[in-house]
Design a protein that fits this description.
Elements: H1 30-34, E1 42-47, H2 64-68, H3 71-74, E2 79-80, E3 91-92, E4 95-101, E5 106-111, H4 125-137, E6 150-154, E7 157-161, H5 170-174, H6 181-184, E8 204-209, E9 213-218, E10 231-236, H7 240-249, E11 254-255, H8 262-265, E12 274-277, E13 280-289, H9 299-308, H10 311-318, H11 354-363, E14 367-369, E15 372-374, E16 382-388, H12 392-406, E17 411-417, H13 419-428, E18 433-437, H14 445-452, H15 475-486, H16 490-507, E19 510-517, E20 520-523, E21 527-528, H17 547-553, E22 555-556
Parallel strand pairs: 1-10, 16-17, 16-18
Antiparallel strand pairs: 2-3, 4-5, 5-7, 6-7, 8-9, 9-10, 11-20, 12-20, 13-18, 13-19, 14-15, 21-22
Length: 558
C-alpha cells in the first residue's frame, strides 16, 4: 500500500498510493453523523485521513481522490484485475479485448463501442491514445513508471509498443484508467491540475466536496446501466479511534482502520452484520531506511538492525494479529510466495539474533562503548523513526523497533507528523527510517522493484512518485530486476529472483515487518454482495481499483 497506488496499497490503517490514515479533522462532521442506508440509496465510506484538499486529479496519489479512493468511481480502466488472484485473466471493461505480442513489447486494445463519458460524449480510441501519451510525456503522472514508447491508433483500436518486455507490467497497463481528451487537452499543467470538476466514464460524479466530507452521486446515463447505490459519502475522521467508533455505531459502513481489539470494538457491536476480511497479496510493510544518509548507507548496520527486530511482537502487539506475520528474511509473504523462495532461504527465519547482529557490526568496524554503538568514524549511531500521528499500528511498531535496536546500543526517537507532511518527506527523502508499505503484484518482483530499482531512483529533494523512497543504489539489483522483467524463460526469471532475495537479505534496503493484506471492515445491515473468502471476486479495500466492481455488485439487504 503506497501513496501510489497501485500503489501502491496499505491495508487497514494505510492506503495507497498509493493512501494513508492520518490525524486532522473532527469526527463530528456532518458527513460522519448523517449515516447511510439502502433505503436512501446512500453508502457511507471513510478513513482517518484528516481534512482533504479539493483535488480530484486521478493520476496524483496525493489527491483526495486517491487518498479516499473515489477516483476509481469516476474513472474506469481498460480491464479489471484481481490483486488476490493476479494470475487470473482480467475482466474486460473499457476494452473488450487486448492481445500481447513480441514477448510483451506490443499490445493491441479493442474498445467497447458502448462506452461514453458522463457528459454524454463517446469514449473513443482518441481518448485512450491521449491518456497513454499523457502518461508518456508526464512522468509525475505515470506512477507505475511504465516505459511507454509508441502509442498509435489503428482504425478503432489502440496499439502500444515498448522497447522492452512488459511481462511484469501487464496488469498495470491494462488497468490504466482513461481520461477524456476533450477536457484534458486544454489543461496547461496536468501535473498540478486539481481537476475540481472531474468528468469520467464511471458510474459516479462529484456532487459536493468539503475538507471533511466528499459526496458522489450516481450518473443516470452510466453506459453499463443503472446502479443500486445512488450516493457515495466519504468522511474523513480524526484518527483510528474516531473511525472505529463510527463503524461500531453503523454511521460508517465501509472502511479499513486498525483496531487493536477488533472483536470487542467492532464485531461484537453487531455480530450479525459487522464483518471484516483481510486477504493478502505479495506486498509487505517494513522499515525503510534512507540509504543516502550516513550511517544508514552501511549495509552492515541495516542487516544488524534487521537481525534484532522482533516480528512476532510486531505481529501480536502492533498489528493485533490482523497482518500476516513475516517469517522469512527475504520478505516474501508465506505461504503465498513459497514457490518463489530461493533454496538457500527455504529454512531461514526472522527469529531475533542479538549475538549474531553484534558480530556483524563488529566485523564491519562498529564499536560498542558504554552501551552506545559508534560507527567506524567514531560517531554514535542515532536515528529518528517517523510515521503519521494516529496510525496506531505503525507507531506501536516503531516503539517495538526502538526497543529492539537499543540492544545494539542504537538510540532512536519516535517522531509523528501529519500524513501530508510525512508523505512529502518520504517522497523527497527527508527521513532516517519510516514504516511504509510496498507495491504488490503477481510475483515478488513488484515488491522488490518498489524497494530497490535504480531506474526509479531520485536524488534527495526530488520527489519520488513510484518508489525507492530509501534511495537504495544497487546496479546489481537494478540489473536483476531488468533480467526478471525481460526474461523469455523461467530459468532466467528464477535466477534473477534468487539474486534479488540475496540482496534483500544481505544489504537490507528495508526491514520487512509484516505482510500486507488488502482488507476492510464493512456492514451487511444495509448492503450485501461484498467479496468474502468464499467469493473472492475482489479485494475488499475501497481504495483499490476493483472497488468499482464491488459497488456495482452491491444491492439492498432489505
Amino acid at each position: 500500500m503506497s501513496v501510489r497506488r497501485r500503489h501502491t496499497l496499505r491495508a487497514l490503517s494505510v492506503a495507497t498510493a498509493v493512501v494513508a490514515l492520518a490525524a486532522g479533522c473532527s469526527s463530528a462532521n456532518s458527513g460522519a453523523n448523517k449515516g447511510g442506508g439502502a433505503a436512501t440509496g446512500v453508502l457511507t465510506l471513510g478513513k482517518p485521513d484528516g481534512p482533504q484538499t479539493n483535488n480530484s486529479n486521478p493520476f496524483l496519489n496525493t489527491s483526495a481522490g486517491a487518498t479516499l479512493g473515489y477516483r476509481y468511481m469516476i474513472y474506469e480502466p481498460l480491464a479489471m484485475t484481481n490483486q488476490i488472484k493476479p494470475a487470473d485473466k482480467a475482466e474486460p471493461w473499457l476494452a473488450t479485448d487486448w492481445k500481447w505480442e513480441d514477448n510483451f513489447t506490443k499490445v493491441t486494445f479493442s474498445l467497447d463501442p458502448k462506452a461514453k463519458w458522463a457528459d454524454g460524449k463517446p469514449l473513443t480510441a482518441d481518448d485512450v491514445a491521449y491518456t497513454f501519451n499523457l502518461l508518456k510525456t508526464h512522468s509525475a503522472l505515470n506512477w507505475n513508471g511504465i516505459p511507454f514508447d509508441g502509442v498509435a491508433i489503428e482504425g478503432k483500436k489502440v496499439v502500444l509498443t515498448f522497447k522492452d518486455s512488459q511481462y511484469v507490467n501487464q496488469n498495470k497497463i491494462i488497468q490504466t484508467f482513461i481520461v477524456p481528451k476533450h477536457i484534458w487537452e486544454g489543461v496547461k499543467d496536468p501535473e498540478t491540475w486539481p481537476n475540481r470538476n472531474p468528468v469520467g466514464s464511471g458510474p459516479y460524479k462529484l456532487k459536493t466536496f468539503t475538507p471533511q466530507t466528499t459526496t458522489l452521486t450516481a450518473t443516470p446515463t452510466y453506459w453499463k446501466g443503472a446502479t443500486k447505490v445512488k450516493e457515495l459519502r466519504y468522511s474523513a475522521y480524526n484518527d483510528n479511534s474516531a473511525a472505529t467508533t463510527a463503524l461500531a455505531s453503523g454511521k460508517l459502513e465501509w472502511s479499513f482502520v486498525f483496531m487493536p481489539n477488533y472483536k470487542q470494538l467492532f464485531i461484537n457491536k453487531d455480530a450479525k452484520n459487522h464483518k471484516l476480511w483481510f486477504p493478502s497479496g505479495l506486498g509487505i510493510h517494513g522499515l525503510w531506511f534512507n540509504t543516502a544518509r550516513k550511517p544508514f548507507d552501511n549495509p552492515a548496520l541495516r542487516k544488524a538492525m534487521a537481525m534484532v527486530v522482533d516480528r512476532k511482537a510486531i505481529y501480536t502487539q502492533a498489528e493485533a494479529t490482523l497482518y500476516p506475520e513475516i517469517t522469512n528474511p527475504t520478505g516474501i509473504p508465506l505461504p503465498a510466495g513459497d514457490s518463489f523462495l530461493a533454496p538457500e532461504y527455504k529454512s531461514a527465519t526472522t527469529a531475533p539474533d542479538v549475538a549474531g547482529a553484534k558480530k556483524v557490526l563488529t566485523d564491519a568496524g562498529f564499536k560498542l562503548a558504554g552501551g552506545v554503538l559508534k560507527d567506524p568514524s567514531g560517531k554514535p549511531v542515532k536515528l529518528t523513526l517517523t510515521d503519521p500521528a494516529g496510525w496506531n499500528d505503525y507507531i506501536t511498531g516503531l516503539s517495538i523497533i526502538k526497543d529492539n535496536i537499543k540492544q545494539l546500543g542504537i538510540e532512536a526517537q519516535v517522531k509523528t507528523q501529519t500524513a501530508e507532511a510525512w508523505g512529502a518527506d518520504v517522497a523527497n527523502g527527508n527521513f532516517d527510517a519510516t514504516l511504509h508499505w510496498t507495491n504488490s503484484g503477481a510475483t515478488p518482483y513488484d515488491m522488490y522493484q518498489n524497494i530497490m530499482d535504480g531506474a526509479i531512483l531520485q536524488p534527495i529533494g526530488k520527489a519520488s512518485q513510484t518508489g525507492n523512497f530509501g534511495r537504495f543504489k544497487s546496479p546489481e539489483a537494478t540489473q536483476a530486476l531488468k533480467d526478471f522483467a525481460n526474461a523469455t524463460d523461467e530459468g532466467t526469471r528464477t535466477a534473477a529472483m534468487n539474486k534479488l532475495q540475496k540482496i534483500m537479505v544481505e544489504q537490507v534496503p528495508m526491514i520487512p515487518t509484516s505482510a500486507a493484506p488488502i482488507g476492510a471492515e464493512y456492514s451487511t445491515k444495509n448492503w450485501v454482495g461484498w467479496p468474502t473468502e468464499a467469493d473472492p471476486y475482489a479485494p475488499p479495500q475501497h481504495t483499490q481499483p476493483s472497488v468499482l466492481q464491488i459497488v456495482l455488485k452491491l444491492k439492498s439487504s432489505k
